[in-house]
Automatic annotation (TrEMBL):
Name assigned to this protein: Adenosine kinase
Pfam families in the cross-refs: PfkB
Catalytic activity of the protein: adenosine + ATP = AMP + ADP + H(+)
InterPro entries given in the database record: Adenokinase, Carboh/pur_kinase_PfkB_CS, PfkB_dom, Ribokinase-like
One Gene Ontology term of the molecular function aspect: ATP binding
Keyword presence, ATP-binding: yes
Signal peptide extent: none
GO biological process, alphabetically ordered: adenosine salvage; AMP salvage
EC number: 2.7.1.20
Cofactor(s) this protein requires: Mg(2+)
Function, in words: ATP dependent phosphorylation of adenosine and other related nucleoside analogs to monophosphate derivatives. Essential to sustain methyl recycling.
Classification via Gene3D superfamilies: 3.30.1110.10, 3.40.1190.20
Pathway, per record: Purine metabolism; AMP biosynthesis via salvage pathway; AMP from adenosine: step 1/1
Species this chain originates from: Eucalyptus grandis (Flooded gum)
Amino acid sequence: MVSEGVLLGMGNPLLDISAVVDDGFLHKYDIKLNNAILAEDKHLPMYDEMAKNYSVDYIAGGATQNSIRVAQWMLQIPGATTFIGCVGKDKFGEEMKKNAKLAGVNVHYYEDENAGTGTCAVCVVGGERSLIANLSAANCYKSDHLKQPENWALVEKAEYFYIAGFFLTVSPESIQLVAEHAAANNKMFMMNLSAPFICEFFKDAQEKVLPYMDIVFGNETEARTFSKVHGWETDDVEEIALKISQWPKASGTYKRITVITQGPDPVVVAEDGKVKKFPVILLPKEKLVDTNGAGDAFVGGFLSQLDCVKAGCYASNVIIQRPGCSYPAKPDFE
């Protein structure tokens, strides 16, 4: 039986502003497809331009929150999942809170009075997406909120923890607190490489928490960037997954598993010195809406079944047939 609050996620809650744009828009704002970056000053006008010139969907997002929502959807047990992060004290924050509660997720947002709720531009061209995140309030999360008795009680209740690597840019101290708690209490701690820039520019923070990771998720681009940053001189995803799985661990309770997705190519899973590959559910191109949230959904499906690649593939297959990280009322996964 899945108990209340068994899975806890912590990360950057963002309101996705998603639209199918054109190549000219990408060129204007120097955007590359299949990438995830933090917004610079040159990107700030794009959010209003998208809303003005394109048909826009507003969807509660942020990598970790997406994965937790999908896990909750797969589990269909209200309150099984919890999410912690920072939003602004504004209408977008209220909207996300409402959406999360409707989805059955127990959200405990820290509400910042000085910054607006974070947004993420999701630019879709030919079904492929690029993410430009303006963190705003999401960047204001403090570990003091996590340490409050009512919030730390959520940590103590949970048995599984998942945090996207993006949160390393915001509150590495909060990540470390949860990671050390998991190791000390034989709980499972999981993270995601999340984006090439995390592997490149937050290498030290990532390395500090890596020994605590029982499961590491990522995609092939992130894996290859991780390899390059660490001087491994290999682009072979299977070899990289194996090397990450063999990185020293802080706890011997679980052997590390590395799970690398490769779009339509097989998922690579490295564990106990061996590599296995799992085919994904292939989708006819005419059914592809956009790939935004596919990786997050894979993780959510995986988490819902506690180590099931098949569930991850199912969830990501559903999500890429819909706008953003959205899903029907109930899953038909068996």
